[in-house]
Structures are given as C-alpha cells and as structure tokens.
C-alpha cells in the first residue's frame, strides 16, 4: 500500500516555530514529526510515501534527501506556487498514488498508536470508498455518522454551522453520532475520479459531497494514543507520550 503525508500546511498554530520552519520539521524527542510518521508507516510495511510541500518546502526536501527517506521511497508533490489545502493537495498528488488499490493519507502533525492494519481491514470489510479514523474526543468541529457508521454530515460546534444545511431540519439528526476526525484515512483509488472540486479545497467537503452516493465510514480508535501537535503546548505534551 502507498501512503501520503500531508505536509504543505502553514502551521500557524505552531508559531513562532513555523515563522522559520515547516511544521513537518517540528521535533519530538530528537526526531521530526515527519520522520516519526514515515517510521510509523514502516511498522505496517508501508514504505512508498508521497509528501506534499509548500511552506518552507526546500527545508522538507533537504531533510528527506539527507536522511535518504529514513529508509522509505519518498516522492515529493510540489505545491510551492499555491497551497491547495487537504483536498487540493490530494487531488494534485493523485497521479503519484496509482500503485495500489487503496492508499493511506494522514496529516503530518498527528502522532498516534492507531493500528493501521486494523484500519485497512475495516476499510476492506466495509467496502467503503473511504474510511476515516475518528475518536470521541472533544473538538470544535465534528463529523456526524449514522447508526451504521456512515458519514452523514459535519458540525461546527462553536458556530453551530452544519453541513449539509438541510440536516438542521432532518428528524434523524439527533440520532447522529459526532466524532472528531483524526486526519488519517484510507481511500480507494477510485475516489480520485469522483472529486468534483478544483484548486484549493478541503477533503472534508469532498467526503460530504460524496457521502450520499458512496460509503464513507468511520473507524473509531478512541482507545489508543492520539495527539494533534498543532500547538506548542501539544508538541510539548507529545514529548512525554512518544519516546
């Protein structure tokens, strides 16, 4: 299986570090989070990885080259001319992700003990177009799944915004299960041809667009470790969790 690590973001929450460096090179106990996630994927036999770059792109490219990919084959998807967000970045990288029927895609700024093999098994057994890793942690924004674990919507808990908007008037909304997305997903290669958006867009909007026609399912890994290292405080916390 191939994988993609989304590393192009500006990392504004991680300032002042990201004023001079990409978030992918933030350090946790002597290793960058990019290295940690490359090595995390290796534990599950995934050594063919695409990394997209934008913010301080050359620093990431140099780190990969000097480390010889930390033992993995790494392809760069270059977004230096324009940052494309998660969906646009994945769509741009799709031509590199053709060597397996499914691929794992994850944000660079998450550290986790999620069992990738179990995630893959769940994806295959559910015959989903995409399987989204989630937990029941508190979050300002959450995905909404029905009782069968199928994606049905999204809610911004701070503003009250809901997508699709007609969910507000739907009698079944109260039965939907809110889950926080972990920024990790397995997608079937066939998903790429169904992306209707262009340019800069979120992958969440892609999933919301497709979920009425295709199976987009959740995989709850609330029992394991998960840290979004997007802030200095969480980066410090990760150092006490991941050796």
Q: So what's the CATH class?
A: Alpha Beta
Output mean pLDDT.
Answer: 94
**Architecture in CATH?**
Alpha-Beta Complex
Question: What gyration radius follows from the Cα positions, in whole Å?
Answer: 17 Å
Task: State the domain count.
Answer: 1
Fourth-level CATH superfamily: Spore Coat Polysaccharide Biosynthesis Protein SpsA, Chain A
Broad structural category:
alpha/beta
Percentage beta strand? 25-35%
Structure keywords:
23% helix, single chain, 243 residues, alpha/beta, Spore Coat Polysaccharide Biosynthesis Protein SpsA, Chain A, 14 strands
Question: What topology emerges from the helices and strands here?
Answer:
Layout: E1 2-6, E2 27-28, E3 31-32, H1 33-42, E4 48-53, H2 57-66, E5 73-78, H3 85-93, E6 102-107, E7 110-112, H4 116-126, E8 130-135, E9 141-145, E10 151-156, E11 162-163, E12 177-188, H5 203-210, E13 216-220, E14 226-228, H6 232-239
Parallel strand pairs: 1-4, 1-6, 4-5, 8-13
Antiparallel strand pairs: 2-3, 6-12, 7-14, 8-12, 9-10, 9-12, 10-11
Describe the structure concisely.
With 243 residues, this protein is an alpha/beta fold.
Report on this model:
There is one protein chain. The protein is α/β, with parallel strands linked by helices. The protein has a single domain (2-239), classed as Alpha-Beta Complex (Spore Coat Polysaccharide Biosynthesis Protein SpsA, Chain A), CATH 3.90.550.10. 23% of the residues lie in helices and 28% in strands. The protein has six helices and 14 strands. It has helices at 33-42, 57-66, 85-93, 116-126, 203-210, 232-239, and strands at residues 2-6, 27-28, 31-32, 48-53, 73-78, 102-107, 110-112, 130-135, 141-145, 151-156, 162-163, 177-188, 216-220, 226-228. The strands form three sheets. Strands 1, 4, 5, 6, 8, 9, 10, 11, 12 and 13 form a ten-stranded mixed β-sheet that branches. Helix 3 (85-93) crosses helix 5 (203-210). The protein is globular. It starts with a strand and ends with a helix. The mean pLDDT is 94.
């Amino acid at each position: 299986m191939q994988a993609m690590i989304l590393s192009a973001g500006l990392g504004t929450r991680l300032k002042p570090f990201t004023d001079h460096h990409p978030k992918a090179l933030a350090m946790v106990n002597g290793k960058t989070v990019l290295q940690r996630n490359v090595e995390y994927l290796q534990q599950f036999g995934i050594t063919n990885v695409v990394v997209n770059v934008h913010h301080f792109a050359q620093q990431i490219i140099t780190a990969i080259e000097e480390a010889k990919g930390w033992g993995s084959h790494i392809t760069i998807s270059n977004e230096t001319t324009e940052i494309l967000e998660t969906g646009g970045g994945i769509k741009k990288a799709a031509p590199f992700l053709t060597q397996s029927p499914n691929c794992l895609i994850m944000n660079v700024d998450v550290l986790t003990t999620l069992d990738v093999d179990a995630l893959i098994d769940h994806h295959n057994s559910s015959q989903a177009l995409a399987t989204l890793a989630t937990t029941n942690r508190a979050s300002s924004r959450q995905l909404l799944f029905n009782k069968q674990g199928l994606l049905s919507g999204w809610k911004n808990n701070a503003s009250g915004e809901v997508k699709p908007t007609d969910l507000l008037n739907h009698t079944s909304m109260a039965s939907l299960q809110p889950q926080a997305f972990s920024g990790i997903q397995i997608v079937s290669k066939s998903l790429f041809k169904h992306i209707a958006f262009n340019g800069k867009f979120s992958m969440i909007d892609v999933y919301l667009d497709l979920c009425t026609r295709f199976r987009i399912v959740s995989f709850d890994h609330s029992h394991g470790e998960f840290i979004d290292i997007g802030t200095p405080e969480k980066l410090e916390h990760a150092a006490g969790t991941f050796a």
